């Protein structure tokens, strides 16, 4: 049973950061801001990062914010050592190979099936690094998507113009002689 009827009428944003600490922190700040504007938030972490968060903050650390919940999906990587961090290169490869798409799609279906107390998903806010599968999922579900790039503006400009830099032969650098 729903705690309030109003809860089922709120817009519902699913926020999914790239699974690295700085990206998670930035997305969590954005999710909290969106929440203050009246949205129901589902914050999606990988199972690995979700467990690390619970261990560091305690099992009740995710309680207390109404209409703000946390969900976890697998990252498609082999299990890591308990206290280790994950290899960012392997995570990026997992994103590019669509290992996140099926679990994310399943989560969206599950969230929409539970929509009696919480409104169905109305939009996705994805880290730019997760866009290869997040855009696909948004299109499949007919949802608007906003991409949130957590990198510095200078880095973003380099990323944006990377293809042109390759075409001009400026990257990749061949050796130290090209740096001078």
Please, could you describe this protein's structure?
The structure is a single chain. This protein is α/β, with parallel strands linked by helices. It folds into two domains: 9-149, 3-Layer(aba) Sandwich (Rossmann fold); 154-180, no CATH class. The protein has helices at residues 21-36, 47-57, 88-96, 101-113, 131-141, 153-160, 162-167; strands at residues 12-16, 40-46, 68-73, 123-127, 145-148. The N and C termini lie far apart (68 Å). The model has no long low-confidence stretch (mean pLDDT 81).
Report a brief summary of the structure.
The protein is an alpha/beta fold and 180 residues long.
Task: Please estimate the helix content.
Answer: 40-55%
Question: Would you report the number of β strands?
Answer: 5
Biggest β-sheet description: 5 strands, parallel
Structural class: alpha/beta
CATH superfamily (homologous) name of the largest domain: Glycogen Phosphorylase B
Radius of gyration: 18 Å
Strand content: 15-25%
Query: What is the name of the CATH architecture of the largest domain?
Result: 3-Layer(aba) Sandwich
- State the name of the first-level CATH class of the largest domain: Alpha Beta
Q: Which fold name fills CATH's third level, the topology of the largest domain?
A: Rossmann fold
Cα shape? globular
The SSE order reads EHEHEHHEHEHH
This entry's quaternary arrangement is: single chain
pLDDT averaged residue by residue: 81
The rounded distance between the terminal residues' Cα atoms is: 68 Å
Overall number of domains = 2
User: Strand order, biggest sheet?
Assistant: 3-2-1-4-5
Spans where pLDDT lies below 50 across 5 or more residues: none
Number of helical segments with 4 or more residues: 7
Family: Belongs to the UDP-glycosyltransferase family.
GO molecular function, one term: quercetin 7-O-glucosyltransferase activity
């Amino acid at each position: 049973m729903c705690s309030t009827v109003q809860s089922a009428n709120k817009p519902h944003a699913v926020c999914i950061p790239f699974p690295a600490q700085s990206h998670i922190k930035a997305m969590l700040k954005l999710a909290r801001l969106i929440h203050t504007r009246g949205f129901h938030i589902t914050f999606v972490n990988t199972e690995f990062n979700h467990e690390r968060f619970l261990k560091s903050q305690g099992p009740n650390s995710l309680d207390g914010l109404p209409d703000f919940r946390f969900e976890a999906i697998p990252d498609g990587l082999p299990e890591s050592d308990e206290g280790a961090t994950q290899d960012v290169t392997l995570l990026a490869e997992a994103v590019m190979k669509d290992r996140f798409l099926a679990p994310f799609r399943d989560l969206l279906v599950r969230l929409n099936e539970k929509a009696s107390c919480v409104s169905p998903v109305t939009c996705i806010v994805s880290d730019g690094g997760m866009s290869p599968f997040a855009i696909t999922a948004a299109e499949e579900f007919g949802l608007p998507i906003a991409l949130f790039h957590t990198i510095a503006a200078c880095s973003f400009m380099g990323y944006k113009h990377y293809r042109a830099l390759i075409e001009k032969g400026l990257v990749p650098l061949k050796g130290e002689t090209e740096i001078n």
